[in-house]
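Predict structure. Chain length: 362.
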Amino acid sequence: MSNLELLKPFSLGEMELKNRVVMAPMTRSRAFIDNIPNEKAPLYYEQRASAGLIITEGTQVSPRGIGYLWTPGIYTDAQKVEWKKVVNTVHKKHGKIFLQLWHVGRISHSDFHNGEKPFAPSAIAAVGKTYTQNGWQQFSQPKEMSIEDIKNTVEDFRIGASNAKECGFDGVDIHGAFGYLIEQFLCTGSNKRTDEYGGNIENRSRFAIEVIEAVTSVWGDNKVGIKLSPSNRSNDIQDDNPSETYGYLINELNKYKLAYIHLMEPQSDVSQLPNYLTKVAEHFRKIYKGVIISNVNHTKESGERFLKEGYADLISYASLFISNPDLPERFANDYPLALPNRKTYYGGGDEGYIDYPEYSVN
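Prediction complete.
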């Protein structure tokens, strides 16, 4: 029996996780028809049900939340039918699974919205491109959301949370990272509003808090998590003082009985950027009183260290779970790890999706 911290059971609220290894949310872009999960999605998630917790790929709460081809939603009956199949297969393997609720905001193109501009807190286009039915295109100039747009979007999150509950998920994860809509409201580079949703930190945090309150109104205590990336620079996101911005928000999150906060370490060198944190989980461990999941490029060894040092309670793995569906078993037995084929991450068929085998000793 392995004595790894990673493989010890963990109580997440009233849920008992069989280990502390989390499958991180990963976009796979295989929802080819009407943003309905791929027919092989149940097998894909079932293969990885040895994780203590699975967090699904980002799942749009409404058509307005779409910014990429072939990503699943949670707003139609047909989508719910397929997600129920995913949940059932994971539960048959005694796994636990949360659905990630997603809205990309300005990281989109008008091609996804019948020619209309994507939503954003301010009418500031992000620098970058997205792949559409018409090929690679620059992110569109967004529409500054009205108060009604904001209220409707919060309601979309609530409905998405309710639909996820109907599907039988064990909880939900709110996507507040990667420069998508929630982070766009938080950060000064993308939020230039002068009303109650812009300006000071409290106002810029308002949308995130309203989404959390809407989602927890459906799920209650210890069933809702949120993913945050305080030192993230993806998708042209920037903030004048992310240490202060996220310090305020994460301290506010202590008021809610969340299942966890899911914190990303920097994906690039931010050591020369003022007020950017190089050690995210270690810093916010001093502020947040609940469960922390740590993410980004963890190895077995770094995961062990974060748990032993107390920086995190759970460790999430992304690409390693793509190519190693039996990742906890490989950790337990010190089996070699397979490397994923990056060319098959997005789109495509079975290759790179459900064809990675479990480790065989023969």
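Summary: The CA atoms of residues 30 and 197 lie 35 Å apart.
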